Amino acid sequence: MAGANSKAQLPANPTLKEINWYKKQINWGELPPFYHMVASSVSESEGVLHHGFDNAVKRIIDKRNWNIQLLGGFEDDHGLIHCDSKPRLGLHQSFTDRGFELWAFPYAKDIQIDTYVKDNRLMEFSVWDPHTMKNIIRINQLHKFIAFYFERGDIADKALILHAHKVVHKIIAFLTRELNIVKVDGVSIKDFYQLCEKDARACGDEVDLARLMLGDDIRKD
To answer: Which of 79, 151, 190, 198 sits 20 to 30 Å CA-CA off 117?
Structure first.
């Protein structure tokens, strides 16, 4: 087992692979189980835009599942679908007991839908199945990992949290290009991080004040 490398440095704007490498360098050549679980979940989320396997993003942008009649579209002689409009989606960011999740909701008229719908003239998707299309990504236990960072985390932990935020931003930007994103709401990773940071600072102030009252931090001129 390699020893902790105090000379290891994290590059600017690191990739997930570089963050994992750095974490190993400062942690005796290993990835702690909690860190590894979160990092694996971030990697899986990052892969939804690149990997070939089926996922919610690919189902949503599949024009064969769009209601082309409602969207003013048609299929040409080569089987390609062209639409005047793109389906509308609302995106909601949420921290649940499972971690961070990004949800998608289609519209019927101006109402968000969260149920299974098939071949409805008001829906901009031919089929909307919340079980396979609603949950865009999930980063397991990210809320607990952020709280852990403020308790006793390190630079690599913070870099992983920041990278997770960037991954979500990239996915939202991609969906914005491919679809008509009406709104993005909820609690972002940045929002939750700043809330924990504020709580940690307030807790630290209380500890310092208690020490001051006990005379621990009295400085003599």
So the answer is: 79
